[in-house]
Structures are given as C-alpha cells and as structure tokens.
Design brief:
mainly alpha
Length: 237
C-alpha cells in the first residue's frame, strides 16, 4: 500500500500544478500583452460572468457536503463575499454588494451593458459546459475535493495584480472604476488560498485522499483553460 506524502511534499505537489493554471493560455497571454481587441476583451468579461455566477452555488455545495461544523462556518463567508451581504457591510471589500456586483461594474467599464451580461447572450457553449461541469463536480464529489479544486486561488492573486497593471497600460479606454473587482479580490484571494491549503493539508491525510486532491486541482485548471479555449475560438466570430 502506498504511503501518504508528508505535509510538505503534499503541498509541493499541489504547487507543482502552477504551470497548468490558465495564465499560460495563449488567450491570456494576448490579453495581458495588449493584443486583444475591445470585442475580445468584452467577450472574456461576459463569459467570465457565467463563472462568477457559479461560485456561490459551488461553495454552497461544498458546505452541504461537509459534515464538519467548523469547516462549514469557515467556508460560509464566501457566500456573502460573492453575492453581497445585503446590509451595506463593507468588510467583504465590496461595500456590501459583493463580487457579482463588482463584476457588473467591470462589464460596464469595458463597454458592455448590464442587460446583455445578465441575460448571458454572449456566453459560449464551451464556457457553459465547462462551468456546469465544475459545479457538478463540487456537488457530487467529497467536500475535500471541492475545496482542493478551489486551490487555483494559490495562483490567482499575482496574476490578477499583473492583469490590472497590464490593462492600465494597454487598454486605457477602460473606465478605471472597473478595476474594483480585482482590487477587492486580490487581498481576499491571498488570505483565502492560505486557509484553503491548510484545510486540504489537514483533511487529506491518506494517499487516496491526497491523490484525489491533486486530481481535483488539475481538473479545475482544465476547466479554466477550457473556458479560454471557448472564448478564444469564438472571439470576433
């Protein structure tokens, strides 16, 4: 029987998936180098909206699948962060509005109107399929695997910071108000990723659990890259 990895080696295996994150996708490389047209950039924002919509439901699924009250309590804050608290509490970084509201501000900043984002008219079939697959995964797999899949957070803060810098340089036509989503999300993602990694290291202690966690994170990286495949294929068509 295979022996589980030490905590340090397990963490290293998870970090080793960094190269499969979507920031190395050709579309993201163009997006950050200034090579995207305004319609392409709008297409990315409109399609990413569908992913944003999924986040609260997938987090609720993780909570529903988890038998541990302390874990459910720690994960529950993600629901209010994304959907908004409804009470004007600004502690989430979104003034009580939440990540979804911030994303709609971004959509307007790049030249989309809210109606065309909300009715999902620009969402590519491939994006819908990938995001729905991710939600189904979190609904049907053990909670530890849903949490492990969220470890793409480990790779995102620096990437988002680079995105804001690149967009300010290359896409000066974007209304600066649109950067609120990233400015709010970056510090939260840094804190969330550290807590998420601790949860995975604490609760995936057998060889099978550790391998399932690695596979879950690899799957999530593939979901994100599949989304970009669909966005890139459909851009300007």
């Amino acid at each position: 029987m295979a022996r589980p990895l030490s905590r340090e080696r397990f963490a290293a295996r998870l970090h080793d998936l960094r190269g499969r994150y979507w920031d190395t996708h050709p579309f993201h490389l163009r997006l950050h180098s200034g090579g995207c047209t305004p319609p392409e950039l709008r297409r990315w924002v409109a399609n990413r909206w569908y992913y944003q919509l999924c986040l609260t439901r997938k987090n609720a699924a993780i909570i529903a699948n988890c038998p541990l009250p302390e874990v459910r309590r720690s994960w529950a804050g993600r629901l209010g962060y994304q959907d908004g608290t409804g009470d004007g509490d600004a502690t989430s970084g979104g003034g009580g509005e939440g990540g979804l509201a911030d994303w709609l501000v971004l959509a307007e900043a790049v030249g989309l109107n809210r109606a065309e984002v909300l009715d999902e008219r620009h969402v590519a079939r491939g994006v819908r399929f990938a995001v729905d697959g991710y939600l189904h995964f979190c609904q049907t797999r053990p909670w530890t695997e849903g949490v492990a899949a969220a470890l793409t957070e480990m790779f995102s803060p620096d990437h988002m910071a680079d995105r804001v810098t690149a967009w300010r340089e290359h896409y000066r036509w974007i209304d600066p108000a649109g950067y609120a989503y990233f400015e709010h999300r970056i510090p939260v993602a840094r804190a969330d990723s550290a807590r998420t990694l601790e949860l995975v290291l604490d609760h995936c202690v057998t060889e099978a659990q550790q391998q399932a966690a690695v596979d879950a994170l690899a799957f999530k990286c593939e979901v994100l890259r599949a989304m970009l495949d669909a966005v890139d294929y459909g851009a300007d068509r």
